[in-house]
Design goal:
This protein has a three-stranded parallel β-sheet, covered by helices on one side. With 134 residues, the chain is of the alpha/beta class. The chain is 43% helix and 13% strand. Strand 1 (33-39), helix 2 (43-55) and strand 2 (60-66) form a beta-alpha-beta unit. Helix 1 (10-25) packs across helix 2 (43-55).
């Protein structure tokens, strides 16, 4: 849409994914709140989805970036007994998004596919953030 990522067809792929996300994926409606979560490294995709959401009439676009390096630090250094803890406001946010009838769009991907290779897989199962039970 904005043409700033047009090198080697990358921009066209971003545009196509963004269009699918707001159309078939989330079916963004005029006046709707849209929430987008993405990992660092996916900023262009989040921006493209934001642009299309507003063009489609979104009332507000809320976004969240997840940093897998911060999660890795927690897994490697935080006391094991704290890894299952997620603050209550994380779940409250998820519930509020649902109560608002917001469209939810989430992107995960292998930005750093080997980042957790040296982390005990059991610890990855304990720390489920950025997901919340809600």
């Amino acid at each position: 849409m904005n043409g700033s990522n047009s090198q080697n067809g990358y921009g066209e792929r971003i545009d196509a994914i963004a269009e699918l996300a707001i159309g078939i994926g989330a079916n963004v409606q005029e006046g709707q709140i849209v929430t987008i979560s993405a990992e660092l490294g996916q900023e262009q995709l989040l921006r493209a989805v934001t642009e299309r959401s507003y063009a489609r009439g979104a009332k507000f676009v809320d976004y969240f970036y997840f940093d897998p390096y911060v999660k890795r630090s927690r897994l490697k250094l935080a006391p094991r007994e704290t890894l299952g803890f997620i603050p209550s406001w994380i779940g409250e946010r998820v519930l509020a998004i649902g109560e608002a009838g917001a469209a939810r769009i989430s992107f995960q991907g292998p930005i750093e596919p080997h980042l957790f290779d040296d982390v005990d897989p059991e610890l990855l199962g304990i720390d489920v953030f950025p997901r919340a039970r809600e």
